[in-house]
Design brief:
Two copies of one chain form a homodimer.
Chain A lengths: L2 H5 L3 H8 L13 H12 L10 E6 L2 H19 L4 H8 L11 E7 L17 H19 L3 E4 L5 H8 L6 E9 L9 H4 L12 E3 L8
Antiparallel strand pairs in A: 1-2, 2-4, 3-4
């Protein structure tokens, strides 16, 4: 595979190819210094108008995790019902979060009003503040991989309920709820690929030249 | 500054701290192999339900760039009018894009219907498909930095007009319009920080423990 060639170019490629959405964690604690480093990585993400709209709620309290896990379980049952037959069975066999096992949960939020109502560069595409927050998540995810830490993004949550559990004020947007800890393993491939849920797409078919649909020669 | 300590941990930290939103480009061409590597990095981003919702429109045609630049200029004039006095003057002195100078422009899009209407993990937070696409952009941005390539995100555009210029079908969401090329420089600090538009926030004040507003001890 091409990635063998790429990793020789720079260590970033090895991080990118070996980063996984981790759902199985060891109980080993995350060192404070490592947590601070990955949060510093997040904080150095790009942001529209340099607004740095993010906050980081570090969740360590087991009682809070249990509430979030309960909400996940309810929503995940509803999610499973959208699929039928073999796909339903496959879905129900997947482990889609590690909320209570992970030593740390991390909610990354976006404050759209930071530095006032007008943000340089945000006048036409309003959600670029959330986009910036996603870039911060990806910085954190790659830095965590470099630290040997696994990160799992739990997307099967209801933001209204999450805001109540974490006391997040109106107007603040929860963007990502992450589980962070040392992983049982970093598998070679994404789990949804290895269990046959979806294939890795061919990159060449996703690249167009100058206009949508024009494949590069 | 703390970053000196961090860069010794792993090369990723140096990339993260020295990545910039680049608006001034050299005319030097981007090697095909380097472009392919950074697109491969983007394609290995996490995605909700492993849906890989992205496409990459590589824009090389100067006529297309000129159309996009014209649209930027109109929207940027409107954006400037949101600010007054010194801030208005500061805004008008900023260079906020490098569309026509950059050898490559790159539009990164999101297809919310890839692999069908139901996406594993997207039943509650619908825009996680766009969030995945933002993670792809950040992978590309960091890989580009490792290649010595600069990336600038042009957010002052209207997506409806951009879709017409690039022939993007209804339903497909343009997420990022990037300029890519070798930069004149990678400045030490973000330009909006060094010109005094906004300060870098203190990370410690952005971190809460277990609940919004609870500063860690």
């Amino acid at each position: 595979m091409a990635s063998t060639l790429l990793v020789e170019q720079h260590p970033i490629y090895e991080l990118i190819f070996s980063r996984r959405d981790v759902r199985r964690f060891l109980s080993r604690a995350v060192p404070e210094a490592a947590l601070k480093r990955i949060l510093t990585a997040a904080h150095h993400a790009p942001s529209v108008g340099f607004m740095q709209p993010w906050n980081f709620i570090v969740v360590r309290d087991p009682a809070v995790k249990v509430k979030v896990k309960g909400m996940f379980s309810a929503e995940n049952s509803k999610g499973a019902r959208r699929f039928r037959g073999k796909r339903r069975a496959l879905y129900e066999g997947l482990k889609l979060e590690g909320i209570t096992e992970a030593p740390i949960n991390l909610c990354v939020t976006c404050d759209p009003k930071r530095f006032g109502p007008h943000v340089l560069g945000r006048n036409t595409i309003r959600r670029t503040d959330v986009y910036s927050t996603c870039c911060a998540v990806q910085n954190l995810w790659l830095a965590a991989r470099a630290e040997g830490l696994g990160v799992g993004w739990v997307s099967i949550l209801r933001n209204d309920k999450l805001k109540r559990i974490l006391g997040i004020p109106p107007g603040i947007i929860p963007v990502a709820y992450l589980c962070v800890g040392y992983p049982v393993e970093f598998p070679d491939r994404p789990e949804l690929e290895s269990v046959g849920w979806s294939p890795r797409l061919s990159l060449d078919r996703l690249i167009f030249l100058d206009r949508w649909g024009c494949l590069a020669p």
